[in-house]
Amino acid sequence: MDIIVKLKEELKVEKWQVEAAVGLIDEGNTIPFISRYRKEATGALNDEVLRTLHERLTYLRNLEEKKVQVLGSIEEQGKLTEELRAQIKRSGIGTSATRAEILKKLVNNKYLALNKKTQVITPTLLGEMIY
Questions:
Q1: What is the pLDDT, as a whole number, of residue 95?
Q2: Can you tell me the distance from the alpha carbon of 131 to that of 124, in angstroms, rounded to the nearest whole number?
Q3: Which residues, in sequence order, are CB contacts of 89 under 8 Å at separation 6+?
Q4: Contact (Cβ atoms closer than 8 angstroms) between residue 20 and residue 42
Q5: Is 14:43 a contact under the CB 8 Å cutoff?
Q6: Residue 44 burial by CB count (10 A; 0-12/13-18/19+): exposed, middle or buried?
Q7: Alpha-carbon torsion 53, 56, 59, 64, what sign?
Q8: What is the pLDDT averaged over residues 6-25?
Q9: Residues 6 or more apart from 56 whose CB is under 8 A from it?
Q10: Model-level pTM greater than 0.85?
Q11: What is the Cα–Cα distance from 50 to 130, expressed in whole angstroms?
Q12: How far apart are CA 83 and CA 62, in angstroms?
């Protein structure tokens, strides 16, 4: 997945703006600094857009890292097919509603247990076995 293109589409901004903002973030600049003093570099992206971009950038990078870990784990077990590899590479976790639906399915299939009082989700023995 091309993270820059995905961010461009999600935020409805130009690709060069995303590239500039990501570059400044990767250099260690803070969102307030970029918003105030690097407007010319980002095309005047405001604080809100920059914060969303930073959050989504972190999330998407972590998702890509997790995909690599999952692929490595499945490959170590000798169960990785090309079809499964392709499916994992093009998958994403999507919106918060999609994530909630995934968690519901995992609870219903007994991979996770939900404490209804505290709303804390913990893996079951079955869930730990697949990890």
A1: 56
A2: 11
A3: 1, 67, 71
A4: yes
A5: yes
A6: exposed
A7: negative
A8: 94
A9: 6, 7, 10, 11
A10: no
A11: 37
A12: 23
How confident is the model at residue 5, as a pLDDT?
Answer: 92
The alpha carbons of the chain give a radius of gyration, in whole angstroms, of 19
Residue 24 tokens, joined: 């400044």
pLDDT at 49 over 90: yes
pLDDT beyond 70 at 43: yes
CA distances in angstroms from 91 to 15, 34, 76, 81, 84, listed in the order given = 22, 32, 20, 15, 11
pLDDT per residue as tens digits for the range 54-113: 999 999 898 888 888 887 888 888 887 888 777 777 766 555 556 677 778 788 888 888
CA distances (Å), origin 63, targets 36, 42, 45, 67, 93: 30, 25, 25, 6, 8
Phi, psi of 112 (to 5 degrees): -130, 150
Q: Token digits for 21?
A: 């903002």
Q: How far does the chain reach from its first CA to its final CA, in angstroms?
A: 24
pLDDT of residue 121: 81
